[in-house]
Specification:
By secondary structure, this protein is of the alpha+beta class. The protein is 27% helix and 34% strand. The chain has 5 helices and 8 strands, in the order E-E-H-H-H-E-E-E-H-E-H-E-E. An 8-stranded mixed β-sheet has the order 1-2-3-4-5-6-8-7, sandwiched between helices. Strand 5, helix 4 and strand 6 form a beta-alpha-beta unit. The longest helix is centred in the middle third of the chain and has 16 residues. The chain is globular and about 40 Å long. 28% of the residues are buried.
Length: 185
Amino acid sequence: MIAQDLFVRQTTLATGRLRLEPLGLAHFDGIWASLQDPEISRLTGTHAEFTQRQIHTWLASRSDAADRADWAMVSAADGTYLGEVVLNDLDPDNESMAFRIALRGPEIFGQGYGTEAIRAVLNHAFDDLGLHRIELEVFEFNPRARHVYEKCGFVVEGRRRQALRWGGQWVDAVSMAVLADDPRF
């Protein structure tokens, strides 16, 4: 069984090009810009609109969350904010968590940052934290993300039909997961 306070001291993860550091107020500008991008809202299925105050409050509370990890993905070379990566919905009895990632914007899609960040988080989740299962959902209209998830070891487990209404159309959500003993990328 995994401890409920798994992330009391959230660690920084490093890859060749990225630093995944605990998300906080220092990342406000990057988060705020992402929330203003209609394509990022569509890909994440975010209908809500947020105020700057709400985002400040949310970012300030991240260090108090012992049952989840919110990382800012930043360039190791120059510290530029590239997106966020999250492990949340800890189920300690079943040693599982949910995963999500949101890149800053379309200008950085296709450069491998998502793949690099996902692999770092999965290695940390399975090898360091002892988790057994990581799961996610991806909307049908995001085949690029689904391809990256599959490349990182996620397997399609099912579908939630018409889970999101976007632009007057119903969109399915594809459920995917990867297990600690699944083949690694």
